Amino acid sequence: MIHRRDLLALAACGVGTGIIGARPVFAQERPFRILMLTFNGETEVERGFRDYLTDFGVRTEVIVRKVGRTQSDVAPVLSTLPEIAPDLIYTRGASMTLAVVGPYDAPNPADYVRDRPVVFALVAAPVQAKIVRSLERPGGNVTGAMHVVPVPVQLRAMQSYRPFKKVGALYSPTEQNAAAVVEQVREHLTAIGAELITRNFQTGPDGMPIADGVDVLVNELKAAGVDWIYLVPDTFGSTVLARISPPALAAGLPMFGATEMAVRQGGALVGLVSRYYAVGQLAGAKAMEILVARTPVRDIPVGTLKRFSLIININIAKKLGIYPPIEMLNYAEVVTS
Fold first, then answer.
1. Cβ 149 vs Cβ 304: under 8 Å
2. Confidence (pTM)
3. d(CA 166, CA 307)
4. In the CATH hierarchy, which top-level class contains the domain 13-147+276-299?
5. CATH 3.40.50.2300 occupies which residues in the chain?
6. Domain covering 151-273+309-335: architecture
7. Of 4, 80, 193, 196, which one has the greatest count of Cβ atoms within 10 A?
8. 35, 65 in Cβ contact below 8 A?
């Protein structure tokens, strides 16, 4: 059994920017203008981002644009940058961030935003996705906040709840973020003598993933003998959780979530997660370093939270008949959504 001190005893959010203490008042000639790009409206992540800046007395003018996650989706908005003239661009997720800044080794950098600071939130593997060159020194015009708990820690939590030999995963191989996490899971499972079995979402004529056949994929994982389905932090996958959960429940397969949404809304039994609001706060701290402290973006490390939450969906536990170990209830948050 993994214990609370091993799982949750990392220091509190501690955004670690060096800009901490009592709420200061900054001399600003005008509010900082932030272009906020989201694909499904504002969430707890964006609320945390806004609140962090407000709580530190930073005046902002936030211009929200709801866009898709591909370069062609964001191009119309980016064409208005000279008119909007933002001091900073906020993005959520790996796909959208790449659509804005491109991979750092893109052959045509002029196709992307390289002349303004960009702060991302909810990117699981920014180095593997080629958003930044390293976590410690991003090296370009983009930094931000990661949200996925280290894979080995997630797997220990999963094993503590219910031992496994085989773990299944559904993901979009075209999404660099998801593919990078899948490879980390595969590596760590192999190291402990377990197996990862994957299935890819189908794609439409445009090469983008679609939800068709999700129930078939879940049943294939069941037939392959998986003990868990690991819900990869996949941007598309997060939009079809309602299609994944019913066949998984019908097959008696518990799901482990890498994100807060997967447990609260997506039918996962349990997850070890970074809270979305805190991830937004951390992204806000990065924005503050850029806008207030005037730290060069290339020198601002990509951040990750130091405190995680173990969340158990007790309604899913009842439906599956798979209940948590008693000790786990001493430190887990139990939800009934």
1. no
2. 0.82
3. 28
4. alpha beta
5. 13-147+276-299, 151-273+309-335
6. 3-Layer(aba) Sandwich (3.40)
7. 196
8. yes
